[in-house]
């Protein structure tokens, strides 16, 4: 998983390539491209992109990349995809095959929720659960899913919160006349003078990529895009 993030690019296509042997073979045989950066004078890639040639496989990979964080089960995926539980379970196995560390982490989170009745985010905030000793099966399933989801979503919130604090503490942004207006998930919106927009953008990108008092304590880089515009729509 760390290698995939460090490689960058189209994460969902890379996941599909790792999951499906026929997709991987097509990439290795150069029948499709995992990614493509157009060069001057090039209007289209020399061979199809993976996301176009294997759209169905990539869509499943993308859904799994997001669903795993929510503790999705084979039963839930079978309903989403309108396939049998066996097919959904087999697809899940393909995803986990190269990500045994994710499976091990999820197991630890479930054990923590049952033994300690709480799990923790990156910065130590806790999500508490009732004692599961005599709980019905349905409630145990809910806690298992929440035990996986809460640290993921909560840690993402930790990062966003620290980034906003880093922006708020930045004296240079204040000198340039910029102020934080709004946070939307992993985005922040600031307002300030046009003449200092590019300087402010660079500072904000730095704050968000190193949100922990000017450092990044994670094992992967925090890639940040920043744009300037007269409105939020223009900057999208």
TrEMBL record:
<keyword id="KW-0235">DNA replication</keyword>
<dbReference type="GO" id="GO:0006261">
    <property type="term" value="P:DNA-templated DNA replication"/>
</dbReference>
<dbReference type="InterPro" id="IPR043502">
    <property type="entry name" value="DNA/RNA_pol_sf"/>
</dbReference>
<protein>
    <recommendedName>
        <fullName>DNA-directed DNA polymerase family A palm domain-containing protein</fullName>
    </recommendedName>
</protein>
<dbReference type="GO" id="GO:0003887">
    <property type="term" value="F:DNA-directed DNA polymerase activity"/>
</dbReference>
<dbReference type="InterPro" id="IPR001098">
    <property type="entry name" value="DNA-dir_DNA_pol_A_palm_dom"/>
</dbReference>
<dbReference type="GO" id="GO:0003677">
    <property type="term" value="F:DNA binding"/>
</dbReference>
<dbReference type="Pfam" id="PF00476">
    <property type="entry name" value="DNA_pol_A"/>
</dbReference>
<dbReference type="GO" id="GO:0006302">
    <property type="term" value="P:double-strand break repair"/>
</dbReference>
<dbReference type="InterPro" id="IPR002298">
    <property type="entry name" value="DNA_polymerase_A"/>
</dbReference>
<feature type="domain" description="DNA-directed DNA polymerase family A palm">
    <location>
        <begin position="3"/>
        <end position="196"/>
    </location>
</feature>
